[in-house]
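Explain this fold:

***
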Amino acid sequence: MERHFHSEQSRSQLAGPAAGLAGYPKFDESSHSLLKKHLTKDAYLQCETRVTPSGFTLQHAIQSGVDNQDSGVGLYAGDEESYTVFAPVFDAVIEDYHNGYKPTDRHVSDMDASKLRGVPDPEGDYVISTRIRVGRNIKGLGLSPGISRANRRKVEELVVEALNQLEGDLAGTYYSLGSMSEADRKQLVADHFLFKKGDRFLQSAGANRDWPESRGIFHNNEKTFLVWVNEEDQMRIISMQKGSDAKEIFERLSRGISAVEEKIKAAGFEFAHNEHLGFIHSCPTNCGTGMRASVHVKLPKVGAHPDFKKWCEKLRLQPRGIHGEHSESDGGVYDLSNKERLGKSEVELVQTMIDGVQVLIAAEKALVAGEPLPKELTE
C-alpha cells in the first residue's frame, strides 16, 4: 500500500513507542481553537502513538491547528479511520462544535425535496441567488489531508467516469485544472466556478499536495449543477440558480448525487458514510450532511441592525459577506446559510434556511416601513 507522510520524519519518528509528551504542541495565549481546548495531555498520550491503516498520525491531524494558531477548529482527518483511531480528540471536538452531539448519537439523512415548504422571496425583490452544496468522499480511498497520489488519481478517474454519463439537465463537461485551455480557464473564472489552491489551513493539513494534479471542475450545460473534484473533499457537489426556489435547487442536487452514487457503486465503490457521523468529510465541522444551503440576499436595514447576528443565531443561520467566510457585506447583500451540519437531515437544514430567510426579509420590510418586527425575533 502506498503511504504518504507530510514531513520528512519517518513513521518511526512520528509514531514511535512511548514518545510521551515530547511532541505535545505549544499554543499561543491568543489561540482559541477547539484543538487547543480539547487536545488535553491525556488525550494526546492516548493517541500519540496510534497510526491509521493508511499511515495517518495524530501529528498529521493536528498540524494545521498548530501552524495556524488562529484556527477555529484546527483538526483534520486523513481517512475515515482517523475518527475512531483518534477518537479521544475528534469526539470532543465534534461534541463541542455540533452542539453536544455525543459519540452514541446517530445521524439520519433525508434528501426528499418534496418535503420542503415555502419560497423565501416569491417576488424576487430580495434574494439574488440560492446555492446548496454537499461534500462526498469515496470509502477506502482516504481524505484529502492523507490521500495518496495513487488514490487521488483513482478518485478523479471514478468521478469523471460517473460525471461523463450524466444525462438530461445534468449533462455537461469536465475541465481538468492541470490541462484546461486558457480560454476555458478564463470562462470558469468569469463564471466564478474555478476553485483555487487551498488556503494556509488546508496547506498545513496536507490537502494541497501535488497541486493541481487530479483536480478539476464539472458543470452542466445550464451552469446550475457543479462538481469540484479533489478539493477539500473528493467531491464538492453544488446546485444553484438565480432566485429563491430552494426546492427546485435541492431536487436537482438530490438527483445529481443519486446519479453519481449509482455510477460509483457500479464501479465497485461507495460513499464514505456511517450511522454516527453520516457522510464522512476531512473537516469534522462538515460531518453529517456536509451541506451548506445559502442565499445571497439584500438586507441593508437588517444587516445594519445591532441585533443582526443575534437574530441569525436565533434562527440558526450563519451570516457572512458574499465573498466568502470572514468577508464583509457588499452593498447590504449578505450570504446566509444553515449553521448546523450534523444531527439533522438535509431536508431539515434547507427548511431552516428557507424559514429563517423569510423571517429576515419580513424584518427588512418592517424596518423600512417603521412597523413592529416579526414575533420570531422578539419572543
